[in-house]
Structure formats: structure tokens, C-alpha cells
Amino acid sequence: MWLKKRILVPTDFEKPSQAAADIGVELAQTFRVPLVLLHTYSAPQAFSGVPLSPAEDYALLYEKTVSEFLDKERARLAPGNTEVVSVLRRGVVWEEILAAAQELDVDLIVMGTHGRRGLPRALLGSVAEKVVRISPIPVLTVHGRSDAPPAASR
Predict the structure, then answer these.
(1) Rounded to the nearest 5°, which phi and psi values hold at 4?
(2) 8 pairs with which residues across the strands?
């Protein structure tokens, strides 16, 4: 059994992340390991001559709101006997995911992907792709397209 430590599920609270969290918790239950739910956000940028307090106020409000979302998602995933903990980090998203994976000593990262292509992908980048390419830890990606037919009708 290669999953002995914990599973990391980065989330942005969108459908692909929820699908990844569902799979992550199933794996955590199967292998009897804890699941770590992670949300990472970029810090507001400071500019010369602009007071920092509005950005700091926004960051505090954002952290409070996201902490509530993490609590709700943790409660949704934890009705069984699987331990689910949540972590909130600030920084470059893909870097923080990889740093958290190493610091928390995880065996697997399970993350959703939006499946963007073309210009949207070029403009927005792909956090999942960056994590997959760089991570020394195995990464399972879950494609959570909202326009995909339900599994029962395939």
C-alpha cells in the first residue's frame, strides 16, 4: 500500500475542485489516511504611493470568507471517519501547493482541472499543469467539465 501518509487536495471551490475533493476523500477512506484541503491565494499587490490599509482590509476579509468556505467543504467531506483538515496559504498558487505538499509530507496530490484550451489557457495559465510538471509527488488530475454528460448516461 503506497498511500501511507496523507492526501492533499488544492481547492478553488469550483466544480473541478469539488470533483477532485470527492475522489480525494474516497481515496483517503480506502487507504485510511487523512485528507488535507488546501486553498491558496495570491496576495494583493502594493503600489508606491497607495496606502496599504485597503489591501490589508481586503486580505483579512478574503481570509475570513475563504476560511468559512473551507469549513463548509471540510464538513461536506468529513461525515465519515476520515480525518479532513484545512489549510489556507497566501502566495504564488502553484508554488504554495508544492511547498505545502512537501511540508505536510503527502503521498498524493489530487486536483481539479478546468480543461481550458487555446487563448483562455494562455491568458490564465494552468496551475494544475505546472504542478503536474514540477511535482516530485504523484498528482492525480480530475477534469471537472460542467458540460460533460453525467457518468450514468455515457
Answers:
(1) -120, -15
(2) 36, 109
pLDDT tens readout for residues 138-153: 999 998 655 544 444 4
30 within 8 A of 83, measured Cβ to Cβ: no
**Amino acid present at 82:** T
Q: Which domains does the chain have, with CATH numbers?
A: 22-44+54-145 (3.40.50.620)
Q: What global pTM score does this model have?
A: 0.82
- 3-state secondary structure (DSSP) of residue 35: strand
- State the Cα–Cα distance between residues 90 and 59, nearest whole angstrom: 10
Residue 42 pLDDT level (bands cut at 50, 70, 90): confident
Which class for 31: exposed (0-12), middle (13-18), buried (19 or more C-beta within 10 A)?
middle
